[in-house]
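Thread: Modeling a multi-component assembly for a lab meeting

Hi all, long-time lurker, first post. My supervisor asked me to bring a structural picture of a complex we are working on to next week's group meeting, and I have zero experience with this. I have the sequence lines for every component (440 residues in total). Could someone generate the structure of the whole assembly? Inputs are pasted exactly as I received them:
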Amino acid sequence: MKRICVVGTGYVGLVTGTCFADLGNQVICLDIDEQKVARLKRGELPIFEPGLEELVLRNVAAGRLHFTTSYAEAVPEADFCFIAVNTPAGPEGEADLTQVRTAAAALAPYLKDGAIVVNKSTVPIGTADRVDQIIERHLPPERRGLRFGVVSNPEFLREGNAVADFMHPDRVVLGATRREDAEQVAALYAPLKCPTLITDPRTAEMIKYASNAFLATKISFINEVASICERLGADVRLVAEGMGRDARIGRAFLDAGLGWGGSCFPKDVRALAHMAAVSGCHPQLLRAVIEINKDQRLKVIQKLRETLGSLEGQTIALLGLAFKPNTDDLREAPALEIAHLLQADGALLRAYDPVAMEGARRALPDAYFGTDPYDAVAGADATVVVTDWNEFKQLDLGRLRAAMARPVLIDGRNIYEPAAARAAGFLYYAIGRGTAEAVK
Ligand code: NAD
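Re: Modeling a multi-component assembly
Sure thing. I ran the full set together rather than chain by chain. Output:
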């Protein structure tokens, strides 16, 4: 059993802390957001993440998981202090390290001798060195000479599947200047019996950016192929199927749609491109990946204009608001971007999402939020499926059509069969599914 402090109790920090508690450690999760900590202390989860609530409650009840806003309470006993605060995009696309710097400085006065600071936030190459220096600088005079380690441990979990991803990682990456520091962190993960890769800190930090950029590239690639399919009469879903069967390519991240969003890909691809550019490289591929993604959102607007004419005064319904299914996260969600573009064109918005409506109400105060998908599309001139929640896949398309004023359905995630949608009376548009006749 080790004593662990996790700084930042968001999607990554709360999952990390809870899972380490479940592995038998004593964990204290620390956040400066008093409301968040108060809710957690009452047993309420501030985020939606499948399976997490039960795990939090179980470990709190077992006395292994605690919450606080106080560094003085959380840090002095901790063998490991994980930093899991956010690293949002700055104005030029660079990663804004303010939260990481503040957390490192706040840890310093309380670190115990021999403690290891483990950075889980996605941070620019070279940040581990900076964290080390910040801690050194903020040690009180009487604690100069304190022994501590800094390990880079990028996180690869996916929102919506975060608990399972933490418990069954494909790999754990640990970057450290002293191998024994990395080995101590590796021992925390030993119960997971997963491959562990120990590198220098810069390489570990780069592995995270390169992984996210590669996944975003796969999506932008298939979206470019989708545009070509649409023009030339091929079906991108079957193209992806055929490509994905090739073990060298793999099927994952080859779903054409409205493009990537969320709290990671947009900021991480931009941050890597920024790092490349300021270090004298010319990140042409990364720039294209970002541009293709922007175009995917605009295509929806173009398609609606082609079909409905001016969007001024037209009612458009959005099904799905979260950036992907099984999460309530709206950060850089394609739905919000599309909603703002539609509002700029004078359209009236209706919307529905199974879990993300609370946040969406704040982001889109003028929209009507339906009680269910059928209510959301009532009287709409067009419906756009933005997030591929499972519950949308089973909708009664005849009922959906009957609820709408006009029969325009843009399936931004390719979840319906074109023939079924057309049979229900829709003018149906998908992404990259050319007009070629289906095989009889
Ligand atoms: P988040 O915004 O959900 O959570 C960050 C938390 O840190 C917030 O609760 C905030 O109040 C708290 N915080 C900020 N400054 C603090 C401080 N000085 N002391 C204590 N708490 C502080 O962020 P997230 O989505 O969990 O992401 C965290 C990091 O992990 C980011 O760098 C992100 O890129 C990376 N990451 C995220 C995911 C993901 O799916 N969300 C996956 C892998 C990696």
